[in-house]
Amino acid sequence: MLVPGAPDAPAPPSPLSAPSLGMPTDWTPARPKGLATATVVLTGFYALLGLVVGLMSQSAVDSLRESDASGTATGSPATAGTAVLSFVVGVASFVVLALWMSRIRKNLLARGVKAGGPPAVEWWGWFVPLGNFVLPFLGMKAIASHKVGVGVLLGWWIPFCLVWLLQGASTVISFTAFDLSTGDFRDSAALDAMVPLGYAGGVFIVISWGFLMTIIRRVTDRHVEDKRGA
Length: 230
Prior knowledge:
This protein is an all-alpha fold. It has one domain. It contains 7 helices and 2 strands; from the N terminus they run H-H-H-H-H-H-E-E-H. A two-stranded antiparallel ribbon has the order 1-2. The chain is elongated and about 60 Å long.
């Protein structure tokens, strides 16, 4: 019964506004923008180094031919140094990318949204032979669902896989060009085929990074708005 002049009784809470999975009503996951920025920067540096290594393919081959007139294979110091730096930056890029993906998963789970996909695949999926051509993509697709289109995801993943394949082809060519037991040239003409593969790999890694940057930014900005399972 309402008493004249008394304040209206509070309306019962709407089921739609009730917290999900015991979360407080004012809970908001932190947007991992700092981690996202670090991931974009490091992966971008890795892509740049990949492009530089690719563009140096011709000079690297020429250096191998000119370094020792007797046919002993010695590489270019500049190319070797860039390759080592690329490896180090690549490892760091993997770590920050996996950390970013894990953070997105945790934020979604805290909202009551299960991203799906293989658990923690962003850490182990890269090391499964042959499976690493699919598993990391599935992990990214799971956390990017309803935020990034499949076309953008494929724009990142297909060029990246092509880089792997091109690197594998270059390795096979190197086996045919050198006598591994002596380190001498066996067929120096075979090295010429490595040049276009290097150029193509440099271009593909930059294309892949462009799409990855788009994915990271969109998912970071939109993942707290995901209503699935809430």
